[in-house]
Amino acid sequence: MTPTVVRSGPIPPLTLITDTADDVALARAARCWANPRGGRITVDPTPATLTSAFLARDILAALGRTAYAPTSGRVITAQPAWRAVACWTVVDNIHQLAVLRAHLLTPDRAEQLSVLRELTGIRLILMASGATAGESARLKAYLAEAGLAGELEHLDAPAALSLFTQGAAPRPNPSRPRPVRPRTSTTRFSGAAPACGAPPARRTSPDLSGQHRAGLLAARNWLSRHRATLPTLPDQCDVEFFLSRLTALSPTPEHTATRIHGAQDGFAAAGLRLAVPADPAATGGPGICTVPFTADVARRISRAVPGPAQAAALAALLCTGAAADRLVMATVDDVHHDGSRLTLPGPFGGDHDQDDSPPRVCYAIPTHARPYLQAARLFRQLEGAPGHFHLFSKSFGYRFKALVKDGGHPIPTLDHPHPGPPWHHQARLLPA
């Protein structure tokens, strides 16, 4: 990895724990101490492995991103794996990393951990449990070669046990009696059971009044933020971003249409007309060819695809509805630094003015998908890629089918492609 610092601030000293007695309670405490949501992970390296790629994959697994047996894609190799570790460490806001059996580290792994610490500013805790005098001396020599000899903080077993038990999250007490819930039949909650032979209740369409109100309030909020610039026509990218943000999490095209109508009513009250295609479902785009990108969808992708660029490619397919042949052209600079926005070249062929740059389409990225775009951007920057280089490297082409299979989630835009401009790019905000 190229040492490009991505987290500012002083780096905590390296902590070396010496446990000659190989206390089982200490190892157990270190594992219980781990809490990725709290910024702490513990890694137990896979034994009898040679290359540093295995340790990187162990760290990815501790981060919730398994990498051992992809369904069809290639196993992530050493350098990309360590870059992925650095990206997810920063994006997931991990502050402390504990490595068990540290006396078995090789010089290469010690060097990679040193670079990771320099890149991310993470607090690195190495625990040498049951190490002989020779193994301890060899570990210290490897740390010295990695430039860490002058930054060691030594802890004995009691001090280490205090460290891990103080930071560990409280565990539920199994001896505590659980409240007893009354056993009742389902008919008590859903009403009396229908009489024999009675026709089943007709399924009613979902109540979309809340969707209309959501679009109405979103338009009012947008107008209040742009009040100073409203005498002139708003920037088209701002309009696209608003519409994409409004509809990207719509569960069905029916919900999308209702949200659009609500926004039209909100703009009409301010003397503006939101013109959209007569049938947005025929053109595709946010809310039509997208999937509500929830925490469960994010978790599924995380566990299946450890590579930041590949995980971001799947996330972009799901939450933009753009076709793969457009996403493949996305560059590093096309992602906003916080992952909230992605711009893509439009599917317009040669219709645009050759003297101007090709038109681009702006997409809002939902909250749960933003870390993936951020990680992909950082991953390419750690590779030294300039801003005009492709963002989703090694994600499309002949690798694409394997990536989709690994992701394990249906991608609507692959089954229902729309070659023309998406509906939110065709929309215009005009004077009434």
CA radius of gyration? 27 Å
The average pLDDT is 85
One letter per element, helices H and strands E, the order comes to EHEHHEHEHEHHHHHEHHHEEHHHHE
Q: Structural class given helices, strands, pairing?
A: alpha/beta
Strand content: 5-15%
| CATH architecture heading of the domain at 14-167 | 3-Layer(aba) Sandwich
Helical fraction equals 40-55%
The CATH superfamily of the domain at 14-167 is P-loop containing nucleotide triphosphate hydrolases
The CATH class of the domain at 14-167 is identified as Alpha Beta
Q: What fold name stands as the CATH topology of the domain at 14-167?
A: Rossmann fold
Number of strands: 9
Q: Note the total helix count.
A: 17
Principal-axis shape = elongated
Measured between the Cα atoms of the first and last residue, the distance is: 56 Å
Taking strands numbered 1, 2, ... along the chain, how are they ordered across the largest sheet?
2-3-4-1-5
| Unreliable parts | 174-204
Largest sheet: 5 strands, parallel
Short descriptors:
alpha/beta, 5-stranded parallel β-sheet, two-stranded antiparallel ribbon, 17 helices, 10% strand
Write structural notes for this entry.
With 432 residues, this protein is α/β, with parallel strands linked by helices. Among the domains are: 14-167, Rossmann fold (3-Layer(aba) Sandwich); 295-415. It contains 17 helices and nine strands. Strands 2-3-4-1-5 form a five-stranded parallel sheet, with helices on both faces. Strand 3, helix 4 (107-120) and strand 4 (123-129) form a beta-alpha-beta unit.
